[in-house]
Amino acid sequence: MEPKNLIISLLLFICFSSENCSGAIINVDPGTSFNLTGSDDQNVINAAIQSANSGDTVQLESTTFHISSPIIMKSEVALKGNGIGATVIYCDDPGSNFATQNIINCNGITDIEISNFLIDGSWGSLSKMYAASNKCREHEKRVYLSGCSNVVIHDLKMQYSA
């Protein structure tokens, strides 16, 4: 093997076997720069996503995140929780304007992962309110994908969302 090829091979090996070459983990939890307030947590989550570089992971810690508007995904960023029983995204005030919006919006982006948490659309409290008038479908909540590619969604549970 030529010395030039050997050096390139060695550098590639070091890069792919080192954590420094993989994306950073941005933790979203109390005690970090992305500290939760207990309401409008989508602002903190969205700030973490927007600050992420290609290949980074926004890690949602084991807690309940209260949101009142959508989470907006970005290309080449992963959004992960610590498990369906541990990390919950809860939609506050189901009777508000947010009731007709998506929970997570993915528009024209690529190479994303969404995994390991529970989304509670809080639709259960709307059921009785709208059952008689058959308006429940107006309050569906979802992960919305439009014009996206290389999307991986796994270990995600949605309840009271549709």
TrEMBL record:
Top-rank taxon: Archaea
Pfam families in the record: Pect-lyase_RHGA_epim (PF12708)
Ranges of residues in domain Rhamnogalacturonase A/B/Epimerase-like pectate lyase: 39-110
Gene3D superfamilies in the record: Single-stranded right-handed beta-helix, Pectin lyase-like (2.160.20.10)
Protein name: Cell surface protein
